[in-house]
Amino acid sequence: MPSTPRGFAVRARTAEPTPPPLQGAGWLPHGFRLDTHTHADGQLVYAAAGAVATTTAHGTWVAPANRVTWTPPGFDHSHRFYGRTDTRLVTIPAASCGDLVGHPSVFAVSPLLREVLLALTDRPEARPGAFARLRAVVVDELADTPAQSLHLPEPRDDRLRTVTDLLHADPGRAATLTELGRAAGASERTLSRLFHSELGMSFHRWRTTLRIHHALVHLADGRSVTDTAVECGWSNPSSFIEAFTEVVGQTPGRYVAGLRHPEVIHR
């Protein structure tokens, strides 16, 4: 059971899981999982150190310390935490959610948004209405911030699902779409069209995002940048670093430094 020095308690999985609280902060250990649950209000989950993956029927979103995950009211979702994670939960009341996107997303965390998220979860409300004013700043920041690219959508089409299942099982697999199509009973052209029409991205982009998700986990688990690059399918560390930085917004080295020395990230 993780320590929770700033006052939110999260229960381990039971026969009848208790939904986690809607607001608070606490340190969670590497690999900690919150089972599927839902909220009547919207919720932001911010890993001030470490990383969090949020999964819904729409796919999986991963957020290191420069991103925040957003789940609107009514969406079933689960969370998994990578690295020792300084977890911040912030409620957005349902009445204010209309100003934000209506589907789960990941957003970049500006310096102002980071400070507001920390202020909402670091201490009790000092004056009546203070938290409501801070939440209004959060909504303003997110309403003007485009969603980021760490979303990994999942397909409905059986042929496409066969391909994505093979890649989930082995993200470093170097097979071409034509080779994967033989297992799915579909041509490269058909699968390419399905990737764009169902998932909104190319096969290459989807596989790169999948590999980045696994890279985030491998790095949080203590593997080196070189080993992570090879295991996740890159031919050399340089190409991995370039792809990681483009998708995540920071180098693998900076990401690892934040995992190992979270106090550097704070203020």
| Helix segment tally | 10
Strand segment tally = 8
CATH-derived architecture of the largest domain: Sandwich
CATH class of the largest domain reads Mainly Beta
Compressed to H and E, one letter per element, the order equals EEEEEEEHHEHHHHHHHH
InterPro entries: Cu2_ascorb_mOase_CS-2, Homeodomain-like_sf, HTH_AraC, RmlC_Cupin_sf
GO molecular function, one term: sequence-specific DNA binding
Keywords: DNA-binding, Repressor, Transcription, Transcription regulation
Organism: Actinoplanes awajinensis subsp. mycoplanecinus
Structure description:
This protein has 267 residues and is of the alpha+beta class. The protein has two domains: 24-151, Jelly Rolls, CATH 2.60.120; 154-260, Homeodomain-like (Arc Repressor Mutant, subunit A, Orthogonal Bundle), CATH 1.10.10.60. Helices cover 40% and strands 21% of the residues. The chain has ten helices and eight strands. The chain has helices at residues 111-122, 130-143, 158-169, 177-184, 188-199, 203-220, 225-231, 237-248, 252-260, 262-265, and strands spanning 24-28, 33-37, 42-56, 59-63, 67-71, 77-92, 105-108, 151-152. Strands 1, 2, 3, 4, 5, 6, 7 and 8 form an eight-stranded antiparallel sheet that branches. α3 (158-169) crosses α4, α6 (203-220) packs across α8 (237-248) and α7 (225-231) packs across α8. The protein is globular, with a radius of gyration of 19 Å. The model is unreliable at 1-19 and 262-267 (pLDDT under 50). Residues 1-27 are annotated as: Disordered. Keywords: DNA-binding, Repressor, Transcription, Transcription regulation. GO terms for molecular function: DNA-binding transcription factor activity; oxidoreductase activity, acting on paired donors, with incorporation or reduction of molecular oxygen, reduced ascorbate as one donor, and incorporation of one atom of oxygen; sequence-specific DNA binding. Residues 161-258 form the HTH araC/xylS-type domain. This is HTH-type transcriptional regulator RipA.
